[in-house]
Structure formats: C-alpha cells, structure tokens
C-alpha cells in the first residue's frame, strides 16, 4: 500500500485534468513554464510542489473550473502536510533486553559474573517473625453487592451529565492535519472565529471560500509564516498564541488618505483602489501564474520586487498608497492597473432612438 495516500490523491487529480485536456507532458510544460520532469513527478505522485503555484498553473492550463481549483488546492494542502510529517525525524526506540527467569547476573569490571563472597545465607525467620498470612478472600455475595453498587452509581452520574447538557453529549469530530480551500465544517468555523478574534473582518459561516483564503493568507504574512493559505499546524498554533492584530483602516480613512497622496488625480485614484481591492488594505488576490497581488492597489509580486518591498509592507495601507503613487508618477497615468483604468474612461452616451 502506498504510504503517501494524500500525495496520490493529489497526483490523480492532476492526471485527470491532463487527460481531459489531452495534453502531452511536453505541451503542458510549454504552457505552464514547468519542466517536463517536474510535471511527471507531480502527476505520478513521486513529488509534491513546494507551494501551490505550479499546481494552480497546471490546472488553469488544463481548463479547470473554479470548483476544481478549490478542490485541487485542498488536495495539495493535505499532500503537503503529509510530506512535511514524513520528513520529520523520528526518534529510535530504546532497546529493551528481556532475560528469562529473572534479572541478569551481576558482572564484574572485567565483564564476567561476580564471584561468591562466601557469606552465609540469612537464616529463615522464626514462625513469630514471619509476615502475616494474606487476608482471606471476601465472600462472593459481598463482591456482587459492591459491583452492583458501583454500576448504579456510574449510571446515575452518566444520567445527570446527560440531563445537564443534552446538546453536548456527542464529542466534536477532530480536525484533520490541515484546514483549506473548499472545506465546509466546524473546523473552518473555528478558524474563522479565531481570525475574527485577531481583529479580522470576516464572516463566520464554516465555509472556506475566497474570503477566508484571503484572511488566512494575510494572517500568515503578518505572523511571519509561509503565506500558503493553508491552515496547518504552524498557523493553528499562531492563531491560538500569536499577538498579531488584523485591524486596519476603514474605507473612509482609505479614501481620505488616497486623495491626500494623489493630489493630481484624487477621484481617479480612489476609483482605482476601489476597483482593485474594494478599499480593503488586507485584500490578496492570486493570479493564474501562481503569483499574487497585495493590498489596496493590488501591487503584484513583480512590482513589489521592483520597489524593494515585502508582502507585509504591501498590506500596510500607508506603504501601499505611497508605492502606488510612485508607480503612477512614472508615466503620470494608471497604466499599471489596465483593467480598472479602462473603467475610468467615460463611455459615450447611447443616442436615443428617433421616432
């Protein structure tokens, strides 16, 4: 039986997507920018990508639906957690030596059995010195009465506990090694509640969708964890113990500060930020190539590298606004945000039909 069952499930889904798209490894490698050998390892289950990006590119190239992308992200998270657990060093069990017939004989410094000292054995104790004889067994009737009494007390205690808390009689199912995209259960609800306890603006519905993915990723960035959007053991521990707070600027404050920085085009700048992130400083959006956009003005990984910034800085609203203004100042336009820039251009009015 294959030990890496989660890795095989993940690989099976990749193979299914590749077969459906009818792509060879060579063709898929060219479309995704991934080496052919890496694709083969991922699809056979002999290797799991270090991050979700390669799997996302493969799935998108094969025409995966949003639901399939969410499921693939969940399968990758489980396979990644399984791989991490398999790589942890295991302590060797201590050897236990058993000797039949009692403990082994004492050894001398030379390693041989100890010689007899010639001392005479201790005399047997006199009858009066012997330990008292063991007590006689209790009568069977008494044992039966004690057993019945204990059973009655146990049943009474159980009945009281059930009557006092009828809704808590069933213990909740334990959560798996990871909580990830596409999951719908109480484990997701617990993650959402803990994020809200850290100050995140998030709905608590038990469904791990795009909003929860963004908030989990933002928390990981702020907590100094790997921002993979998967709630594994490090993130679970941080959600319990980290002092990280996720409170951030309200939309009204964002609008005001954007206008103060973009004095040349305040209204357009606010419209761009609203289009990009809904004025949410912790907004994070994954791209089809595995990269991500960060913060109010959705600064891409590439632009972030050019500016010498980090994801944590990009989630700071002041830094993000200043960085966006620097990008705007290059050409004094919003060409870095082509999709939203097109929305700024007024559309000509439709002439009314003449009668």
UniProtKB/TrEMBL annotation:
Q: Which InterPro entries match?
A: Cro/C1-type_HTH, Lambda_DNA-bd_dom_sf, Lysozyme-like_dom_sf, Peptidoglycan-bd-like, PGBD-like_sf, PGBDSf
Q: Specify the superkingdom.
A: Bacteria
Describe the location of the HTH cro/C1-type domain by residue ranges: 14-69
Alphabetized Pfam families for the sequence: HTH_31 (PF13560), PG_binding_1 (PF01471)
Keywords, comma-separated and alphabetical: Membrane, Transmembrane, Transmembrane helix
SMART domains from the UniProt entry? HTH_XRE
Residue spans crossing the bilayer: 142-163
Q: Which SUPFAM superfamilies match?
A: lambda repressor-like DNA-binding domains (SSF47413), Lysozyme-like (SSF53955), PGBD-like (SSF47090)
Transcription: present as a keyword of the record? no
Ranges where the record places region Disordered: 85-135
Q: What is this protein called?
A: Helix-turn-helix domain-containing protein
Originating organism? Streptomyces exfoliatus (Streptomyces hydrogenans)
């Amino acid at each position: 039986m294959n030990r890496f069952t989660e890795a095989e499930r993940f690989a099976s889904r990749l193979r299914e997507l590749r077969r459906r798209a009818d792509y060879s490894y060579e063709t898929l490698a060219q479309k995704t920018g991934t080496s052919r050998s890496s694709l083969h390892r991922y699809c056979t289950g002999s290797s799991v990508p270090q991050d979700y990006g390669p799997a996302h590119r493969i799935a998108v190239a094969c025409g995966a639906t949003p639901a399939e992308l969410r499921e693939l992200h969940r399968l990758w998270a489980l396979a990644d957690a399984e791989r991490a657990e398999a790589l942890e060093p295991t302590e060797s069990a201590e050897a236990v030596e058993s000797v039949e017939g009692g403990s082994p004989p004492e050894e001398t410094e030379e390693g041989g059995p100890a010689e007899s000292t010639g001392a005479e054995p201790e005399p047997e104790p006199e009858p009066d010195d012997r330990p008292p004889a063991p007590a006689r067994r209790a009568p069977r009737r008494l044992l039966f009465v004690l057993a019945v009494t204990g059973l009655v007390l146990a049943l009474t205690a159980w009945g009281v506990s059930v009557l006092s808390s009828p809704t808590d009689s069933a213990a909740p199912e334990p959560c798996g090694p990871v909580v990830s995209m596409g999951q719908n259960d109480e484990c997701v609800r617990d993650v959402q509640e803990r994020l809200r306890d850290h100050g995140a603006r998030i709905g608590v519905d038990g469904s791990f969708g795009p909003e929860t993915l963004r908030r989990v990723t933002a928390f990981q960035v702020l907590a100094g964890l790997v921002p993979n959007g998967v709630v594994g053991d490090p993130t679970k521990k941080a959600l319990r113990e980290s002092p990280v707070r996720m409170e951030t600027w309200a939309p009204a404050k964002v609008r005001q500060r954007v206008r103060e920085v973009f004095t040349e085009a305040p209204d357009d700048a606010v419209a761009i930020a609203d289009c990009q992130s809904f004025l949410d400083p912790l907004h994070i959006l994954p791209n089809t190539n595995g990269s991500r956009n960060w913060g109010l003005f959705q600064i891409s990984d590439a632009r972030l590298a050019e500016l010498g910034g980090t994801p944590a800085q990009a989630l700071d609203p002041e830094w993000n606004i200043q960085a966006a203004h620097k990008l705007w100042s290059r050409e004094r336009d919003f060409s870095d945000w082509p999709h939203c820039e097109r929305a700024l251009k007024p559309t000509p009015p439709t002439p009314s039909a003449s009668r």
